[in-house]
Amino acid sequence: MAVPRRLFPFLPGLRRWPSQCAICHGWGWGRVCGTCIQRHATRALRCTRCALEMPAGVAVCGACLRQPPPFDAALAAVDYSAPWDRLITHFKFHAALDLAPTLADLLLRAWQHSGAADPGWLLPIPLADARLRERGYNQAWELARRCARGMGAACDASLLLRLRNTPHQLALAPARRRANVRGAFAVEPLRAVELRGRRVTLIDDVMTTGATLAEAATVLRQAGATHVQAWVVARTPAPRRVAGEGFNPTGLCETRGGLGWRG
Questions:
Q1: Full domain range(s) for residue 139
Q2: Residue 211 and residue 262: Cα distance in Å, rounded?
Q3: What is the pLDDT of residues 69-83, one digit of tens each?
């Protein structure tokens, strides 16, 4: 439903308004109706280190036990599967910013139910200047600022910098994703001292291999952050094992010693 132009100045303060649900196309409050939220965003037990779905009684997956990721904890609201994969694609690549409040609410709800540690400072994964000009917005910032407002946390989009434009991770084989983002991030030099002894939480839309979040977390640790979390709306599920192949689409890889974190 089109929002009257006279209401445009007030939109930042409106959390929901009558709308057609982006999933079932019925009418309700918010861009995704409550019925679809209940049906498609059920709570799942997840590895506390990489956010992959786990069976009951398992807090940390084998890969993270053997080779922990460079962030201390991870949180995901949903799996990157239907219908959320389609919605996140529209949000990220097709300027569907009307979905931002719903996606941020999913992440806030996951945080409230998780018992996760204090997030500290919320930092969105930054885009390179060229990508930002091309897209017109940073989807991670759209999520982070709404989450910060919802939980009363501090949020900053200028502390973590993207030094160079990198090819989209989706276009790369899993083994190349870590190399693709190596050296892509830095902390604003004049503000690095602000990170010493701080807790920070990285915010992004999707975690697949975790390479981007791992590289950013490493940079923040080198600058003095003492605790780094990684929060995403959606986590790519671990695929079933295929004979002769490792777990290619995720951060898990098979080695002679077992499973390890690819990054």
A1: 43-240+247-261
A2: 8
A3: 999 999 999 999 999
